[in-house]
Design brief:
mainly beta, eight-stranded antiparallel barrel, 14 strands, two-stranded antiparallel ribbon, Porin
């Protein structure tokens, strides 16, 4: 099922990019902003932790379908990170970082327009869609960064433990934004969106019950040490859960600049003379 979702999203992504210019108004654009993690290593399920903000950037196309809806295939690159020391959990001692590469197909729904002219104004919008993203959690150890997924820090792959998690996953982007239409060809947007994930291993941490010696004897000393960095004198039946109740999310927010490729959005059309107008299909 996951493989089918990936193929569907990539097919739709390619299809929208090959639409003839005459069928819809099309813009291309770039985005710059920040990315942020929320999950098992966060002090709260949702919050902004400025120490963990990382740069993000991307590129996209916007295909306008009617006045109120647009499709937006995009690629975004960012990084997420979490650290127990920063968040006051020195007793657990976990940390990670991961680069995120996301391919998405997003639908934008314009809510209303402020401004009498069709080719200028302010437009708040909601967005949602589907995405495939690639990640690879790492942690710092003895001055180097170690990839965590191959180690099996929670016994992944052992009998009675989960299978190793995949580094390619699907997500559901959801968020809101506001467009500033400067003229018939140029739009600047500000938006923030979260990604609903279907994996709890973005940070290599879940709520799985782990036996320290299962990891040590089967996956090695390094895996066991990174599984529970603050454990000093493990006993025979030492078990623990590394994670908590919070599900993993990542967020991308920022400013984008888009330029229309194929003509005017409204030059020469009749103006309705109102300051606030609701777009229609």
């Amino acid at each position: 099922m996951r493989k089918q979702c990936k193929l569907l999203i990539l097919s739709l992504f390619a299809f929208t990019l090959w639409q003839p210019a005459s069928q819809a108004q099309t813009s291309i654009g770039v985005m710059g902003g920040v990315s942020l993690y929320s999950g098992d290593l966060s002090p709260q399920e949702f919050g902004v932790y400025f120490e963990e903000l990382r740069p993000a950037f991307g590129a996209f196309a916007r295909i306008e379908i009617g006045k109120a809806f647009a499709l937006r295939p995009s690629i975004s690159i960012g990084q997420v990170a979490g650290d127990d020391v920063i968040n006051g959990r020195e007793d657990r001692g976990l940390s990670f970082r991961s680069r995120i590469t996301e391919l998405a197909l997003i639908g934008e729904l314009n809510l209303f327009k402020i401004g009498a002219r069709r080719d200028r104004g302010i437009v708040p919008y909601l967005f949602g869609g589907g995405a495939v993203f690639f990640f690879n959690p790492e942690t710092e150890f003895d001055g180097d960064y170690i990839e965590l997924q191959p180690l099996g820090t929670e016994g992944q792959g052992l009998p009675n433990y989960p299978a190793p998690y995949q580094l390619t996953q699907v997500a559901v982007p959801l968020g809101l934004g506001i467009k500033f239409m400067l003229n018939e060809n140029v739009t600047i947007s500000a938006e923030l969106g979260g990604r609903k994930l279907f994996t709890d291993y973005l940070d290599d941490v879940s709520d799985t019950e782990v036996n320290y010696f299962d990891v040590l004897e089967n996956n090695g000393e390094l895996a066991a040490q990174l599984s529970n960095p603050t454990l000093e004198e493990p006993e025979e039946n030492t078990t623990y859960s590394r994670g908590g109740e919070f599900n993993d999310w990542y967020y991308i927010g920022g400013l984008s600049f888009a330029f229309r490729l194929n003509g005017s959005s409204g030059r020469g059309r009749m103006r309705d003379g109102r300051n606030i107008g609701c777009p229609t299909f």
